[in-house]
Amino acid sequence: xxxxxxxxxxxxxxxxxxxxxxxxxxxxxxxxxxxxxxxxxxxxxxxxxxxxxxxxxxxxxxxxxxxxxxxxxxxxxxxxxxxxxxxxxxxxxxxxxxxxxxxxxxxxxxxxxxxxxxxxxxxxxxxxxxxxxxxxxxxxxxxxxxxxxxxxxxxxxxxxxxxxxxxxxxxxxxxxxxxxxxxxxxxxxxxxxxxxxxxxxxxxxxxxxxxxxxxxxxxxxxxxxxxxxxxxxxxxxxxxxxxxxxxxxxxxxxxxxxxxxxxxxxxxxxxxxxxxxxxxxxxxxxxxxxxxxxxxxxxxxxxxxxxxxxxxxxxxxxxxxxxxxxxxxxxxxxxxxxxxxxxxxxxxxxxxxxxxxxxxxxxxxxxxxxxxxxxxxxxxxxxxxxxxxxxxxxxxxxxxxxxxxxxxxxxxxxxxxxxxxxxxxxxxxxxxxxxxxxxxxxxxxxxxxxxxxxxxxxxxxxxxxxxxxxxxxxxxxxxxxxxxxxxx
Length: 488
Hints:
about 500 residues, Growth Hormone, Chain: A, 21 helices, two-stranded antiparallel ribbon
């Protein structure tokens, strides 16, 4: 079915809305760490366990949702996911025990996993390759903007009581309502023909997963993307404790919400800048442009993180911290829109493969960062001397200072080293991505073969040998990429 440009834009925007609500739902837990700590009587270790439960369930469910695109349309899966996580978020708002919170975090994490792989597949199907950086930048910026408002609002009203109901519970119900609205919009506006189900023949589900794993294992660029994602994802998982850190530093709930708000503004700007910058630099340097933008973002992020984490609390420190947090989010979030998602869309051309590959990639990244992110911050903070004070309204100044130092050291330890490894992991991508990109151009064109000229992989027409012979010739040189067919 032919889709007009205006309809493609509408479909893209609906997907962006669903992804933004997905991101906002994920922001609810870190925004309520402080109030949950007070109401449930738990410390960083238990809060980290809640974050771990949601994150690990998200990671485990990703490949399942991705593989279901072989049997169900992207539209149906997105609608189901929105309705499911909306209902579960309402249930979280109604619970008051730690054990039930933990169980529901597992379930909502699994439900939230549907949007990313399905949304990626839809966007790559309706957006041309040279505009995908901008599209993913819009997605990232709108997600950051909605997350900003949700984090700010939830943190600011978390302890306020309205008609006998705590504010944090009302915030959860509000986001649940947005989830239902996003699902309804997808149901009405996204046609079933987009990323529609295709016949899978006699291939079993397990055989299909083996094919996908074998395909990605022979694409060096994908392996490197996973490596940088694993290391780079750990700090972002650990940043669930930042709002708690600001509150512990001495900032009020309202000020913490405002700091988070300014950080969200930086994320909105960063997504647009990253996506646009990735497209522009890629236009000039198609082999290495996106990689360079991503690596620059990671390095700038390290510097800005060390800036804001060491700003001491004082009567005049609030605007300085807000500005530093804005800058951090503005420069450290270019990588997904500028490089990762567009590169994934380039080296995998079939929409179903894209969904499954993205799901596998995010699962591997999320699984490891789930263990090494927020849970590790909780454990390290207590190891460094964090004190959970019960039975008194306020901790003693000495205890508060010791706990603040412990949490700061834990955040630094779980941020600087992984970010540094992430920046290093991008280096081999300057060699592998041009090769993988050239191979996919070959598979798309049948009669063309890539070769290296003056340090750059290019495509030239050759004779007319059988297609499988042409592909086989690529396997002989160093850095070769194996693939089972034209849709690998």
